[in-house]
Amino acid sequence: MTTEPQDQLSRDLASLKIDREAKPPGGRRSLILWLVVIAGAAAIVYFVVVPRVRDKLSTPTVRTSTIAMVSPSQSQVQVTATGYVVAEISAKVAAKVPGRIAEIYVKEGERIELGQKVARLEDVDFRSGLAAARARAAAARSRIQIARATLSETRTQIARETPLVANGVTAKATLDDLEGRALSLTASVRSAEAEAAASDAEAKSLEIQLGSYVITSPISGTVIDKLVEVGEGVSPGFGTPGVVEVVDLDSLVVEVDVPEVRLASIKVGRPCAIVLDAYPTEQFDCVVKEIGRRVNRAKATVPVKASFKFGVKKPDVLPEMAARVMFLSEPAADAAPKTADAGLKLVVPANAIVQRNGSDVIFVYDDEQVRMTPVKLGPAFGDGRELQTQIPAGTKVVLDPPASLTDGQKVKEKSS
Q1: Are 242 and 295 in contact (CB under 8 A)?
Q2: Which segments of 142-220 are extended strands (E)?
Q3: CA end-to-end distance (rounded Å), the chain
Q4: What would the 3-class secondary structure string for 190-204 be?
């Protein structure tokens, strides 16, 4: 009788027991999800981060030069240096007084002469002051005329009264009054003359100052840049430094930095040749115009200026163009610009040529990558080799490429 209730109690207690070995639902799925996330992160690190870090740590630095278009006469090249076209005569035409631009009379590319009007500042208020000064001067001159006329009339009366007083016809007091009035009128004339002179001087000063509101060019040349627009304010002391920039294109020279150790081979008046990066197939003969009197200790270079032999007549040669100057031991055959039809040859630096699989190759540098390019070479030419493979002049090539350099490899260009 008592066994059955005890069995029932045991079953009820057993139903309340916690199964500690049971695993929570979904545990396996969460574990798989975490494994997938970890594997994805590891893949990103391996395929994205690691290559970038490897590139940063292992990207080699290379020196570069360019394939040049040169003439046979340049086998006498002694030194080659790079620089920029600069103008020896140039000006940023500025205003003498602060103001706001009312008119601009010139445009970019226009040829202007010395003293030509460039722009005008707003001058309405100033012209009003000038008109008032001129009116005051005119009024002072009118008072001079009135005072002189009154003085003349008084002197006439004195001349009439003098004999009458002498004969006792008129009292002397009347003559004394007229003479005193004459002295006063004389002083009035002098005062009016002084006032008129002061007004004229004021008007003249204002006229000179008004001339400062018209901006003129201090040199003859070509307008290469408009620095302001109508309505903008200018000032000689601060703000916009000028109104237009004028350059004398006939004064263009090329300024280059020559290594100090090669300076002994350069003399003023010696021949040279200029090749512009913008027109690599053309060449201009030049002469050494000036050797600088300062040394850049950081770069161990000296500035040298080379002038175009007959001046620059091509309008396409502009300031700040990159250029290469080759200093020659002998003058070129003629001084006219040379073209590709005048015997110019493609020349690649000799130390840019290496052997790969028994063939001559160069490594072309382009956008931080190198491209191995097989080439066909001609005879030696100066410090390089004639290049018979058609590659555009100005193309950058790697100098002294290491044996480990491969096609398509990323590199960094060594800064000069």
Answers
A1: no
A2: 214-216
A3: 109
A4: HHHHHHHHHHHHHHH
What lies within 8 Å, CB to CB, of 202 at 6+ separation is: 133, 136, 137
By three-state DSSP, how is residue 329 classified? Answer: coil
Q: Could you tell me if 217 and 114 are in contact, meaning their C-beta atoms sit under 8 angstroms apart? A: yes
Note if the pTM is more than 0.70. no
Q: How many CA within 13 A on the CB side of residue 188? A: 17
Q: Specify the amino acid at residue 412.
A: K
CA distance 278 to 394: 9
Phi first, then psi, for residue 39 (nearest 5°) are: -65, -40
Q: Per residue in 5-45, pLDDT tens?
A: 566 666 666 665 555 555 555 556 777 777 777 887 887 87
Partners of 413 in the β-ladder = 62
Per-residue pLDDT averaged across 111-126, rounded?
Answer: 86
Count how many residues are written for the chain. 416
**Alpha-carbon distance 19 to 325, whole Å?**
92
Helix (H, G, I), strand (E, B) or coil at 184: helix
Beta bridge partners, 306, equal 254, 288
| CB-CB contact of 117 with 214 (8 Å) | yes
Non-local CB neighbours of 261 within 8 Å, separated by 6+ positions: 300
Return the closest-CA partner of residue 412 out of 58, 162, 2, 164. 58
Which two tokens mark 306? 């080379």
Sort 38 into a burial class: Cβ within 10 Å, 0-12 / 13-18 / 19+.
exposed
For 269, the enclosing helix (H) or strand (E) is none
Buried b (16+ CB within 10 A) or exposed e, 357-368: eeebbbbbbeee
pLDDT single digits (tens) 274-284? 888 888 777 78
> Which of left, alpha, beta for 46 (phi over 0: left; psi -120 to 50: alpha)?
alpha
Tokens 């103008």 sit on residue: 87
Q: How far apart are CA 290 and CA 304, in angstroms?
A: 6
Could you tell me the two tokens for 86? 């600069």
- Dihedral in degrees, nearest 10, Cα atoms 96, 99, 100, 102: -60
**Residue of 210, 312, 300, 302 lying closest to 252 (CA atoms):** 312
